[in-house]
């Protein structure tokens, strides 16, 4: 019995890809149309049909034409609700997918951008990996639907199949369509939980250089009004104009020049995890970092976008 | 009570809006069932429903099981104590309404609300088993609105709207599905015989009853409900001849007149011209079929007694349509057998000595001239100081004596009863006939509307050579009763004369009920055939009807699908033309890529179709100007572009 069901299932999945979960991937935008929207009665719809049949037989048995008329009215209204169910999906368009940022193992916020056709799409659900979100798209409107995507490994994660369904308007019919966008989201590597800080070559000399005053961020050009005792005379002597010691600028963080090559003793994944941890630590304290990878060389920078840039590069590592 | 066949996933609690709608639905169900449920029962259910609504508003939560069980026991006990059974139509309806209210008590999840709404639809339908009039049907159909709105409100992420507006989409849905419903109604094959017994009505309906004692009609004569509608082939008979006989009553026990000969061949009748007519009888719960005096033969599924009283084979629990022929001038039973004669002369001993004495005195006075005796009685009623009233003084044991020599006031029953007693005392065979007299002629619908208030009782006396002759003593007292109908007679007889304008409006409006009764309630297998024959369909078997239903249903399905897939044409006409161009170019192999700009696309097209380069470049320039050069593009430019786009046909380059 079970084997037979499974055979039918495999056959259906092979022959009717649009009906089943094994829908092939397709590029955005994905528009739902009549060839890919399927409708079946819900359990409640089946029960309601039985109720209608009981009402029909009762009306016929008692030759009660008013009751028969009511039954016919209710029956045709509920059948018409099937068309409304279809219509709430028909023409719905998935125009874009926006990914959030997440390290492997954490759920990633995915935003699906749906846009409506000439009519409103009411009470549509998007199911992705056991989560569902109900939404409504106005006619010619746009709706953003947020879902959580679970992640396991760093790198490109293809978007899973998404089931769009609706029981609108009476919950008697279940209209659905599988979509499988040809898109992947980038998952950042998971940083290792603990380990040594980076060893910077010539740590001490860097400190020296700071005192010697070469290319230091803490010196800036003289502006009218700067007090005289702040002028760095020594440095100014080697320049065309006066330089001033800038006390208002926060204490400069020590720079980290992170380099793939320095971690030669580790396996590639461990290297990536360590670099990810260092990047994270640097990001929390606002330390400027640069990153050298075999695929990419990212120069010194700091801030959220720099961090994302570096993490993306790490995630993309082969 | 909850059928837990399956374990259900935990469900979110029900929102307030669907619960409110469900309560409205149940209120409507109680409303449509109220006319045939005891008032205290309806009231108790309404109070319970109100309490539940208030409780859930304060603090949501299911009613505890012990409360539900005790309420269920209470409900069953109430139904059994009132009806002494739980089977049958009325107890069933009471139970359905009660269970529905109990369902509301445990409604906390969307699933409960769904079940409640579906059950409400069933409960609404059962209300039509009691009254299938047009108003009732429309009210019940409107009761579907909150039920459908409840189901709709259970869907998540629906646009918010006010409570009355929630009903609007359901109304639209019902209106849109009305044509399909009519189609199904017409073509659904009817059962030739019921699958199980028809409900037997235990509820007494007011109407004519099989026996009569003076004063019985008082309530009936104020009852405005239609009793039947009669349409005639040819001209209707004049008002004075609109006597519809229902019961012929020969047996008298001093107070009550009842039954006559049930079986036996109908008395012979010689007749003059014949009137053909069709009667639409409202449900009476009885078997008698009123017929214009005097019917010649019984319709199918009915039989005629020896006294030409017609009885249907089954009680008339639903409106019934039957066609008949009657004669207005006739000689009924020229010969009277000895047994019949004895029966028509029988008087209970020990009652009404004065009336008997008067009858015997007349016999002595007029001798064998029986017509003169009858005339004397009519004269007595006319000149003896009698008055017509619907609220006569009560009568004692000797009802006829008290009425004739004491109170002098009464209505048709008193006159008919006394007249027959007088005739029998004088030795003339006589009997009481009850039925309807008069009616309102609806000239718009060409039918006669007979109301319960038109109930009437008159007498028949048997005269040698003439047979049974109708004598209406009420006409002697109040001629308007016969010439103008009961409304005119009752207008003065009751304290509150009904507004004439209102009466005439209501009589005119009745035509709609007539249509409803004939078109909808009377629609049966025969009508089905009659409707299809003009279209060349003579076979009305179940298979044929099923086929027609399927064809009609498919047509509606196609129409529905067209509606569902119809996309509103875009308001941007330049864009429409551009789309058309894209389609044509795509057929030539130049497919516009997602997010490809128009300039790039046109240049690509021009490279692919070098022979049409100039045309394409012109199109590109016009389109770009249309799109980007103006805030509001000039009309002639748009026209220009649309024309050029229409004319453009890509020519494939043969390489």
From TrEMBL, chain A:
The record lists the membrane-crossing segments as 37-60, 66-86
List the keywords (alphabetical).
Membrane, Transmembrane, Transmembrane helix
Query: Would you tell me the protein name for this molecule?
Result: Uncharacterized protein
The organism of origin for this protein: Dyella japonica DSM 16301
TrEMBL record, chain B:
Annotated Transglutaminase-like domain ranges read 404-475
For this UniProt record, give its keywords in alphabetical order, as a comma-separated list: Membrane, Transmembrane, Transmembrane helix
Query: What would be one Pfam family of this protein?
Result: DUF4129
Against InterPro entries, the record matches this protein to:
Bact_TGase-like (IPR052901), Papain-like_cys_pep_sf (IPR038765), TgpA-like_C (IPR025403), TgpA_N (IPR021878), Transglutaminase-like (IPR002931)
Q: Where are the transmembrane segments?
A: 37-54, 66-85, 136-155, 167-188, 542-566
The record's annotation in SUPFAM superfamilies points to: Cysteine proteinases (SSF54001)
Does the keyword section mention Zinc? no
Q: What is this protein called?
A: Transglutaminase
- Species name for this entry? Dyella japonica DSM 16301
């Amino acid at each position: 019995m079970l084997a037979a069901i499974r055979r039918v299932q495999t056959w259906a999945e092979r022959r009717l890809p649009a009906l089943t979960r094994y829908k092939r991937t397709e590029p955005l935008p994905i528009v739902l149309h009549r060839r890919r929207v399927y409708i079946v009665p819900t359990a409640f719809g089946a029960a309601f049909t039985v109720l209608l049949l009981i009402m029909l037989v009762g009306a016929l048995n008692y030759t009660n034409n008013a009751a028969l008329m009511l039954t016919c009215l209710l029956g045709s209204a509920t059948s018409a609700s099937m068309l409304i169910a279809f219509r709430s999906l028909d023409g719905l368009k998935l125009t874009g997918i926006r990914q959030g940022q997440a390290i492997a193992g954490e759920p990633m916020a995915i935003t699906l951008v749906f846009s409506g056709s000439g009519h409103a799409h009411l009470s549509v659900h998007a199911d992705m990996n056991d989560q569902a979100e109900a939404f409504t798209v106005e006619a010619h409107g746009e709706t953003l639907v947020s879902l959580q995507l679970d992640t396991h490994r760093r790198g490109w994660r293809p978007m899973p199949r998404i089931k769009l369904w609706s029981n609108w308007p009476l919950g008697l019919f279940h209209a659905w369509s599988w979509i499988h966008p040809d898109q992947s989201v980038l998952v950042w590597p998971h940083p290792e939980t603990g380990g040594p800080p980076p060893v910077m070559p010539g740590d001490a000399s860097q400190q020296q250089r700071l005192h010697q005053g070469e290319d230091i961020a803490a010196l800036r050009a003289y502006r009218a009004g700067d007090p005289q005792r702040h002028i760095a005379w020594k440095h100014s002597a080697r320049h065309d104009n006066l330089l001033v010691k800038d006390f208002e600028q926060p204490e400069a963080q020590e720079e980290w020049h992170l380099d793939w090559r320095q971690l030669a003793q580790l396996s590639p994944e461990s290297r990536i995890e360590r670099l990810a941890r260092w990047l994270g630590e640097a990001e929390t304290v606002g330390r400027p970092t640069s990153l050298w990878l075999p695929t990419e060389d990212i120069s010194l920078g700091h801030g959220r976008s720099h961090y994302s840039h570096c993490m993306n590069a790490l995630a993309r590592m082969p | 009570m909850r059928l837990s066949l399956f374990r259900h996933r935990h469900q979110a609690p029900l929102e307030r809006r669907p619960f409110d709608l469900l309560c409205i639905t149940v209120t409507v169900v109680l409303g449509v069932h109220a006319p045939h449920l005891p008032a205290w029962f309806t009231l108790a259910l309404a109070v319970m429903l109100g309490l539940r609504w208030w409780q859930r508003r304060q603090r949501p939560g299911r009613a505890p099981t012990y409360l539900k069980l005790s309420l269920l026991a209470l409900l069953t006990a109430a139904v059994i104590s009132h009806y002494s059974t739980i089977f049958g139509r009325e107890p069933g309806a009471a139970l359905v309404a009660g269970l529905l209210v109990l369902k509301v008590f445990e409604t906390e999840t969307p699933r409960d609300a769904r079940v409640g709404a579906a059950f409400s639809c069933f409960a609404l339908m059962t209300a039509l088993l009691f009254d299938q009039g047009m108003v009732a049907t429309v009210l019940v159909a409107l009761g579907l609105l909150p039920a459908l709105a409840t189901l709709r409100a259970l869907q998540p992420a629906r646009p918010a709207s006010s409570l009355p507006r929630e009903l609007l989409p359901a109304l639209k849905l019902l209106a849109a599905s009305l044509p399909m419903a009519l189609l199904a109604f017409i073509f659904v094959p009817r059962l030739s015989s019921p699958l199980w017994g028809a409900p037997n009505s235990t509820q007494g309906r007011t109407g004519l009853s099989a026996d009569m004692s003076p004063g019985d009609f008082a309530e009936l004569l104020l009852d405005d409900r239609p009793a039947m509608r009669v349409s005639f082939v040819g001209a209707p008979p004049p008002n004075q001849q609109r006597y519809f006989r229902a019961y012929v009553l020969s047996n008298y026990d001093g107070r009550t007149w009842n039954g006559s000969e049930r079986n036996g061949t109908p008395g012979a009748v010689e007749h003059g011209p014949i009137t053909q007519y069709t009667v639409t009888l409202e449900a009476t719960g009885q078997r008698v079929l009123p017929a214009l005096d005097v019917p010649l033969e019984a319709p199918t599924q009915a039989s005629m007694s020896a006294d030409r009283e017609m009885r249907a084979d089954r009680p008339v629990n639903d409106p019934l349509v039957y066609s008949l022929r009657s004669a207005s001038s006739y000689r009924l039973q020229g010969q009277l057998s000895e047994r019949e004669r004895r029966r028509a002369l029988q008087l209970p001993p020990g009652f009404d000595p004065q009336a008997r004495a008067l009858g015997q005195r007349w016999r002595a006075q007029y001798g064998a001239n029986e017509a003169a005796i009858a005339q004397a009685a009519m004269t007595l009623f006319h000149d003896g100081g009698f008055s017509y009233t619907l609220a006569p003084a009560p009568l004692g044991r000797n009802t006829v004596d008290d009425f004739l020599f004491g109170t002098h006031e009464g209505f048709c029953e008193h006159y008919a009863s006394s007249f027959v007693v007088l005739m029998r005392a004088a030795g003339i065979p006589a009997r009481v006939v009850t039925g309807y007299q008069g009616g309102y002629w609806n000239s718009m619908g060409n039918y006669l509307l007979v109301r319960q208030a038109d109930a009437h009782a008159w007498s028949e006396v048997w005269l040698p050579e003439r047979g049974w002759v109708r004598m209406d003593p009420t006409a002697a007292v109040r001629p308007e009763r016969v010439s103008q109908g009961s409304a005119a007679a009752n207008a003065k007889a009751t304290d509150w004369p009904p507004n004439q304008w209102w009466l005439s409006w209501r009589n005119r409006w009745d035509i709609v009920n007539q249509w409803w009764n004939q078109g909808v309630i009377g629609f049966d297998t025969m009508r089905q055939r009659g409707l299809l024959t003009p279209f060349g369909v003579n076979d009305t078997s179940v298979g044929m009807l099923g086929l027609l239903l399927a064809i009609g249903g498919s047509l509606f399905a196609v129409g529905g699908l067209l509606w569902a897939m119809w996309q509103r044409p875009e308001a941007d006409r330049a864009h429409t033309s551009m789309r058309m161009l894209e389609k044509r170019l795509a057929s030539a192999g130049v497919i516009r890529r997602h997010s490809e700009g128009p300039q790039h696309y046109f240049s690509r097209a021009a490279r692919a179709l070098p022979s049409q380069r100039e045309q394409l470049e012109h199109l590109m320039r016009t389109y770009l100007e249309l799109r980007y050069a103006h805030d509001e593009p000039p009309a002639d430019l748009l026209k220009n572009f649309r024309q050029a786009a229409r004319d453009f046909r890509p020519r494939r380059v043969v390489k």
